[in-house]
Amino acid sequence: MEVGAQVRKVWQKLSRRERSVLRTLAKSSPDAGLRCRSKGVLSLVQGHSVQEIHRGGLCSTSQVYRVAQRFVEQGLSGLGDRRQDNGDAKVTEAYECRLLLIVAGSPRDFRQRRPTWTQELLMKVLHQQTGVAVSRSTMSRLLKRLRVRLGRPKPIVGCPWKKAKKNRRLCAIRRLMAQLPADEVVVYVDEVDIHLNPKIGPDWMLRGTQKTVLTPGKNEKRYLAGALNAQTGRLTWVEWDRKTSDLFILLLWRLYKEYASAKRIHVVLDNYRIHSSQQTTLALKSLQGKVCLHFLPPYCPDHNRIERVWKDLHDNVTRNHCCRDLKELMKEVRADLRQRSKRLQRQYARRHAA
Fold first, then answer.
1. Torsion over CA of 337, 339, 343 and 346, rounded to 10 degrees?
2. pLDDT exceeding 90 applies to what percent of the chain?
3. What are the pLDDT digits (tens) for 1-51?
4. Nearest to 224 by CA among 209, 238, 241, 208
5. What is the Cα–Cα distance from 302 to 155, expressed in whole angstroms?
6. What is the layout of strands, in order, in the sheet containing 235-240?
7. d(CA 268, CA 295)
8. Which numeric CATH code is attached to 163-201+214-353?
9. Which of 25, 73, 193, 255 is the most buried (most CB within 10 A)?
10. Residue 345 phi, psi (nearest 5)
């Protein structure tokens, strides 16, 4: 007897409730495999041939025959997942914990010569550590379920200071923030380079294609010095054609004017040479002590809040840009900074209100 006829014969013997259950499984079962098997049976009941089901993209012909045979022999119970009969699962919670610990480190920690992880290397090291061997497809599904991502490491430079000295400096800045009088402000300051030659970064592309970015060839630069208000999120910036003390001094005078009502302006910044040059020292004296500099420990960009603003600026404007000249690019930069300043001020206002 033809397989479709056999399935329809069993279908006629099912009760109304059993038929309703099968339709529900095909429509909304959380198990994708069970949905697929249920849809295959319903398609056969509706008179579709095995080849038509295969051409429709539901599953292979061999799977249709297997599911139909199980349905004919066992009824609805034959559509269940039979993997529970395979014995104890190889991947246990202990295995998952060991995987997370290994991924967080380096292959060099396990006497491997390769400096980065691959799925094959993870399988090998875990086999050595746990005695459990899994397939690459199992490892791929496990990494996806544990939300282990393939990303780019961030290069950093170690702080030359001793840990205690570094922590004292950072704690002093945090105390300044916590005990700040109402008539004083704290701003985070840093500079950023804007290049006409676009920064190249990842982007979504169609399979088998690669996008191109037209570069002007001859690079031009513009430099920004910016300040992020730690209480309100307000952004202040200035532009200059060179990254010299003049750029930083121009920002200090802009802050002096914008915060004219403040008794003192505390500036948190890194140790770049233009921040402590003789020209900058003379400019600070002319500001009559209203501006006070607080230097972060060397090579600690994560503690300078404005660094995130510059990262977002590159992501949204300069990366893979198609501006034809520096004037057009700087127009986009200014527009992005104005919008970001408004957005940050709204976020800071909600945070303080909460």
1. 110
2. 63
3. 688 888 888 889 888 888 898 899 888 888 888 889 899 899 998 989 888
4. 238
5. 12
6. 235-240, 221-229, 184-195, 264-269, 291-295
7. 6
8. 3.30.420.10
9. 255
10. -65, -40
